[in-house]
Amino acid sequence: MEDFKSIIDAHHPILYKIGRSYASADDFDDLYQEMLINLWKGLQNFSGKSKLSTWIYRVVLNTALTYNRNKKRKKVAHVPVEQIENIVETDTKQHKQNQENDIKQLYVAIRKLPKDDRSIMLLYLEEKSYDEIAEIIGIKRNNVAVKINRSKKKLHELLKENDYGRQ
Amino acid sequence: MEDNNIKSLWKKSDKQAGAYYGKIEDELIKKASKESQSLFARIKRNIIIELWVSVILAIALPFIFWKDKMEFAIVAVLVVALLAVTFYYYLRYLNQIKTVNEPNVLEALKIKEKILSAYVKRLYLLFYIAVPVGFFIGLAFGDQVFVFFSLKTLIQVAVATPLLILVFWLGRKYIYALYTKHLIHLREIIAGVENG
To answer: Which residues of A touch B20 (CB under 8 A)?
Structure first.
């Protein structure tokens, strides 16, 4: 079994992106930590029947879907999510600043989607195949395309409402 | 808004993911380093206090048997031997911790955990040997004629056994409070850094 840290090193963007799609800034650290804990616990029993990344998506999505914001943990590290944009780019040109705002708006819109639609949309944006999406979510492959189209439509409407992409 | 633009933005948020992950790692490592330093400082302080208490007890204990020169001598030799062994383990532990020279914080913590774990095991071993030996010496020297299966001895054993159990219980609590508790905390710190 691979070292846990090296697995997280390779897959941490999944935790971040799904975490930001399901949790507000206040809850993000807690949710991220819970994802890590669930991955750690689950990895010891990972049988290897599915791809590792598929398994990770499943665990992380389940954690996000069942996250209980009342179950606060002692924070190991508090890194305000809004400040991340500042950490990434300190000398940004205007178009890069707009991009940072657009990413933020995208997450805001995704968070407004119903939870089921959010899962589908996240996996679609991660460019997972229909088979993988069906396996991760636990739905029939035939239903994936319909659900993706529905989620995309809702997302576009939400982005319009947020005045996204002022181009 | 085009799908391709949304997907492109989605990919670009990987950079933010990386920045967050990097920051969490740095903060975790700093916190673990600080916590472990204060933990080892506390253990060192406990050891130094124990050293002084051991010396005082080692001087005082044989005098309980001062009426009989032979008993005094035997107890004094055993106490000095026990003190010498504990001194050796204390000093060896302090020296091992001091000479850990690993630049990687996590690896250094793991090495120190092994050292502390071995030290705690030796403490328990010493304790499990010293207490019964002390018990039998107390029984033997407490009676002018020690006959193992005499009624008087058996009654003494029956009365002293709960005391022995109490001493074991208190001793284990003592070692837990001074050392095992910190060892468990150190393992939690290591797990916290490893698991993010």
So the answer is: 16, 32, 79, 81, 84
